[in-house]
């Protein structure tokens, strides 16, 4: 007598983790990993057997099973629990649900998101694939000098965290931003959108410990034929790479605001954001909350105060982050700095 598998989940997702790696090391480690990812059109034929096989050849991972149940509008936990009691009956129930879902329209439009012989997700024909390796290669063209501080793959979900080389010329105080980086995530199983954030690596202890804070997030959903193009555009924010941003940090530390600094602060802040945020920035600038920090007098000190206070702004956080980013990237003209005539630095 044949023994039935009393669990529809018969495979586990693969995983891979790297730390402090170069682009070449990341590329070598993932060679072949994502080449097995495919978007398959089953031509409207989806069958499931009591042992959890889809179309007689594909095994379900936990992510794939959850996606299957979500796609055909059944509760994953309920189906799994009942499957352990009677696999044959649950197979018939699921097959009936698949056949009748939305009068067959949803079945005709289904796509299988596979990794080798494993199904990691289900999607509609409108799903727009964003290949992780393509995104990684494009990112490297913009930021060839960054270090990949953390790389994580779980099935077809991925996340990369990068850090630009340290701006050596800055002598930071505790609480100051000393490096910039980025964090981007993607999936090829339909579970996550493509998202990219800027990271500000802030010195939090005199022993050199840094902590990253994310902001300015851009998100692209996996939908339509142009999803990949939109993701690549998101990587090219203002055509500004992380090394250049680090150089701006150094430049801004040498631009002194001078005697008219309060006029400069109020004019720049109140034009850019809300009065509440402006007041917090001015207070932070004159009376830093970090015990070892001192009131500054440079554009770098001002930018530091802006980024430090942005995370406390709730619904206005994104606007405050964009203001800080624009300040660092020169969107607020240095020519308007009251002390520019008294500085010897050309920017």
Summarize the structure.
This protein is an alpha+beta fold and 347 residues long. The protein is built from 12 helices and 10 strands.
Task: Walk me through this protein's architecture.
This protein has 347 residues and is α+β, with helices and mostly antiparallel strands. It folds into three domains: 34-123, no CATH class; 132-240; 254-342, no CATH class. The protein contains twelve helices and ten strands. α3 packs antiparallel against α4 (87-100). The longest helix has 14 residues, at 87-100.
Specify the number of helices.
12
Any low-confidence stretches, pLDDT <50, length ≥5? 331-347
> What is the strand tally?
10
Please list the strands of the largest sheet in the order they lie side by side: 1-6-7-8-9-10
Strand percentage lies at 15-25%
């Amino acid at each position: 007598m044949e023994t039935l598998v009393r669990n529809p989940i018969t495979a586990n997702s693969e995983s891979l983790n790297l730390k402090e790696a170069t682009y070449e090391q990341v590329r070598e480690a993932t060679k072949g990993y994502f080449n097995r990812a495919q978007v398959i059109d089953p031509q409207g034929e989806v069958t499931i057997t009591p042992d959890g096989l889809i179309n007689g050849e594909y095994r379900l991972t936990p992510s794939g099973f959850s996606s299957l149940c979500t796609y055909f509008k059944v509760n994953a936990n309920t189906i799994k629990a009942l499957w352990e009691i009677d696999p044959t009956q649950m197979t018939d129930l699921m097959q009936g649900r698949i056949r009748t879902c939305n009068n067959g329209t949803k079945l005709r439009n289904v796509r299988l998101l596979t990794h080798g012989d494993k199904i990691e997700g289900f999607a509609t024909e409108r799903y727009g694939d964003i290949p992780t390796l393509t995104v990684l290669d494009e990112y490297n063209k913009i930021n060839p000098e960054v270090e990949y501080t953390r790389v994580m793959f779980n099935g077809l979900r991925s996340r990369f965290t990068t850090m630009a080389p340290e701006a050596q010329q800055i002598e930071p105080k505790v609480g100051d931003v000393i490096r910039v980086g980025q964090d981007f995530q993607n999936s090829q199983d339909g579970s996550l959108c493509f998202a990219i954030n800027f990271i500000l690596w802030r010195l939090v202890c005199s022993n050199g410990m840094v902590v990253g804070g994310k902001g300015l997030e851009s998100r692209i959903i996996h939908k339509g034929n142009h999803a990949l193009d939109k993701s690549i555009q998101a990587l090219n924010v203002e055509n500004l790479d992380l090394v250049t941003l680090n150089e701006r940090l150094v430049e801004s530390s040498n631009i002194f605001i001078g005697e008219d600094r309060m006029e400069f602060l109020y004019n720049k802040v109140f034009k850019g954001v809300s009065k509440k945020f402006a007041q917090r920035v001015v207070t932070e600038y004159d009376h830093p909350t970090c015990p070892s920090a001192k009131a500054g007098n440079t554009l770098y000190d001002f930018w530091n105060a802006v980024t430090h206070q942005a995370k406390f702004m709730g619904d206005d956080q994104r606007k405050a982050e964009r203001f800080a980013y624009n300040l660092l990237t020169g969107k607020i003209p240095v020519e308007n700095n009251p002390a520019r005539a008294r500085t010897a630095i050309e920017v």
